[in-house]
Amino acid sequence: MKEIITPEKPKAAGPYSPAVRINGFVFLSGQIPADPQTGELVTGSIHDQTVRVIENLKLVLEAAGLALSDVVKTTVFLKNMNDFAKMNETYGRLFGPNPPARTTVEVARLPRDVHIEIEAIAVDPKHEYPFAK
Question: What are the chain's domains?
Fold first, then answer.
């Protein structure tokens, strides 16, 4: 059965769910560097924006009863691949020694003309997966 995860903050900016849980997997919609309290964009360095995006992912994960350590796959969308090294450094520090699988792509444009967006897939460690026996 599909469950919609809707944290108090950050709010979805359109007709989509912040996250959907199904069969023990949680699919998180892309997060941008918007302050969850004000909706204002973080416009500092790619480091500052990456921190805000990952903090927003954490808020959605917490609403699902999960943590960053439960993330198994992310997709990072960068407006400029020249930001990769700085984003990668920040991302690595925040995800720690056992980071999820990841794809990073450069895109022409992102919502609200931000420089980074990250989507994620997490697994619920409490879920019983029949194929894992």
Answer: 3-128 (3.30.1330.40)
